[in-house]
Write a structure and sequence with these properties.
The chain is of the alpha+beta class and 135 residues long. The protein has helices at 15-30, 39-42, 81-87, and strands spanning 91-93, 97-100, 112-115, 122-123, 130-133. The mean pLDDT is 75.
């Protein structure tokens, strides 16, 4: 017995320990991977200065920029959904409460009830449709 186990890391009967050893081995190897994109690679990135609707912007050395290698460009849609919702007209109702289900039958959302105050515009929490009580 030379002390070398030919079956390592898998040992019959102790599968959970074997999987744990494999996991720990994987994590130790993962810890050795560099966390930043090398400067040589970052000079080939096609980064746009545009930010998304959430303001997402990565540093040039961030590894998430690797998706823009090989001539691929960051595409940002200037038509954010919140702008489109704001363009919808406000629905004036004659009651102090209203319900919204998003319309379109099965393509809508669960029915919600909205209490209205005079002169105050209240949006639906799901679709953003705006309601106002008639004054």
């Amino acid at each position: 017995s030379s002390g070398i186990n030919a079956e390592w890391p898998l040992r019959p009967g102790n599968e959970y320990k074997s999987y744990l050893r494999l996991f720990l081995l994987f994590m130790s190897l993962l810890a050795r991977v560099p966390r930043r994109v090398p400067r040589l690679v970052s000079c080939y990135l096609n980064l746009s200065t545009d930010s998304t609707h959430t303001g997402q912007q990565f540093d040039k050395s961030d590894p998430r920029n690797a998706r823009y290698l090989g001539g691929r460009k960051k595409e940002v849609n200037p038509n954010f959904g919140i702008k489109l919702v704001a363009e919808e007209p406000i629905e004036i109702v004659g009651k102090n409460h209203v319900w919204c289900d998003g319309g379109d039958g099965h393509l809508g959302h669960p029915k919600v009830f909205i209490n209205l105050d005079k002169g105050v515009i209240k949006p639906c929490g799901y679709c953003g449709k705006q309601f106002k009580e008639h004054e």
